Amino acid sequence: MKEFEIAQKIGKPLTDAQLREAAAKALGVKPEKVGHVEVTRRSIDARQDILYRYRVQAYRDNEPYEPYRVAPYLDVHEARPVIVVGAGPAGMFAALKLLQLGLKPIVLERGKDVERRKVDMARLSTEGVLDPDSNYCYGEGGAGAFSDGKLYTRSSKRGDIREVLHQLVAFGAHPDILIDAHPHIGTDKLPEVVKNIRQCIEAHGGEYHFDARVTDIVRQADGGFDVHCGSTIYTASQVILATGHSARDIYELFQAKGWALEAKGFALGVRVEHPQWLLNQIRYHGKYQPFMPTAEYSFVQQVDGRGVFSFCMCPGGILVPSSTESETVVLNGMSNAARNSKWADAGVVVQIEPGDQPEQYTGPFALMDFQRDVERAMYRYAQEHGAKHPFTAPAQRMKDFCRGLVSKDLPKTSYHPGTVSAPLHELLPEHVASRLRKVFPMVERGMRGYYTNDALLLGVESRTSSPVRLPRNPETLEHVDVPGLYPCGEGAGYAGGIVSSALDGINCAIAAANAVALK
Description:
Low-confidence stretches: none
Radius of gyration: 24 Å
Number of helices: 13
Strand order of the largest sheet: 13-14-17-12-20-18-19
Shape: globular
Largest sheet: 7 strands, mixed
Helix content: 25-40%
Strand content: 15-25%
Distance between the termini: 44 Å
């Protein structure tokens, strides 16, 4: 097998004949001696000509080739149960892995199924009515189901990323995610994928229970668990806890029981919204054409000893309200598969470590309480300054923010609840605001035109990851105080995105299955 790269101008499809000719050249054989040829990666190179760069694997006709195959799902109607709390990426992929291992997943989801969830999110955006159990963070598919389905990850050490991507394709995602450097599914496509996963799990004997918010977890004398959802109790010897980065009530339950938890670093900042046409011109150096992919960006900078970076970039996207509690303002972004809105948005956030918060915040909830108070400060300012919607966001033009000036007016935005002009440079914690004010001119050096008053900053982007960690044994993945309980994914503090959460869910399912085999 030989791996090589080939470049092709965007807009001109790479043909099979071109692939085989390039493969023959790379292998040093005649075209008829080329066996299997496979594109494994596609990325955009906009440094000079606008190119697609393909990474290709080529096999001679006498070399064996084994395509990647997903392990089969087993019938588990009569199998031993494992409770999975949460139906986000970690929970869904834990449940799928349990099927492959011959165990019965019992999925408990505090929110609604993905179709009913859409109704609640529409009411949240248009009417300001928040269902604390069904919103942009809670419900089938988790927070990732309505944030574009971005699948880029650096988490290859957690497991085989192909196991996640190939299953997503099998359940309805476009096969391009198998090769794109920055794969995404699209907010409009993800609900069907999520529904198909659930239907597969149920068809093989697993169970889903919606409107099932966990209110207690009781350890039995024999080491098993009773998991309470109000008056309904589910019982199993293993529990995978995949509740997501905003499940504050679960952290409070752990504290009440005296189970270990600890403060964990997270990141906090703003959503930055540019006109998409401007980013297209910047990223393609004025050569953008409508047939080219919608431009995106990412950056990481060190500012005063802390990382400042872009997060959850949504080209051709919109901004949405992601609060899970009343009287808070939290934003996130999402894009449909076509990425065809007039705006581009990204979180630009500052890393917050334990000890960075003001001294009045102490204990394992120090950063969670700090996070919540910033979200409440955004709400109070907006409501006191003419907000017409419960989730109106404080906002400021980019250059005005960096210069410490309140914007006299604000540009149009994709954010449906609307904006009010605000001094975000004062509303944000000083150690966050000061780094953000330095980073935007720094980014301009590599992206000419990025630093502009046509860009709008909106507060606040605060749900980048969990501010609490549920510590677990690194070998068994069980909670350090509760054998048989597997904290998992973003909510446990061990992942940060769809793919890393899914891989962590898979690993916890394997650990739970190993424990079952030992009993």
